Amino acid sequence: MKYMMFVCTDSEPDTDPAPEPDIERWVSEHDAAGRRVRGDQLAPTSAATTVRVRNGELLVSDGPFTETKEVIVGYDILDCADLDEAIEVARAHPMARGGRLELRPFAYGA
């Protein structure tokens, strides 16, 4: 089953002084195991553009679609047997401590 994992900042990161996991190692491990299909870091929200159509009129604005302290900074597409495995993969990601990770299955199995 494929999952989109949104990698987000968090205004309340973990305060555990233990070293965070290494992102390069996490990527290598899950790429090699076939659990990570693709992923990338996103440009800052200052580079975002929001597009809407209202009453037939195109509305384009600078910035993200919401104003919040927590923002999406990257993503990974995971291919896991089930949600439990996806949670274990997310748990080992460095941003599980410094931010937050949202797992969402693809609606049609992608």
UniProtKB/TrEMBL annotation:
Highest classification ranks of the organism: Bacteria, Bacillati, Actinomycetota, Actinomycetes, Micromonosporales
Matches recorded under Pfam families: YCII
Classification via PANTHER family: BLL7171 PROTEIN-RELATED (PTHR35174)
UniProt xrefs under InterPro entries: Dimeric_a/b-barrel, YCII
Occurrences of domain YCII-related (ranges): 2-104
Name of this chain's protein: YCII-related domain-containing protein
Family statement drawn from the similarity comment of this UniProt entry: Belongs to the YciI family.
Organism field: Dactylosporangium aurantiacum
